[in-house]
Amino acid sequence: MLIALRRVLKALCLGARGVGVGRPIIYAQTVYGEEGIIKAVAILREEIEIGMKLLGAQKLEDLKPEMLDIMDGLLGSSA
Question: How far is the C-alpha of 59 from the C-alpha of 79, rounded, in Å?
Answer without folding.
Answer: 22
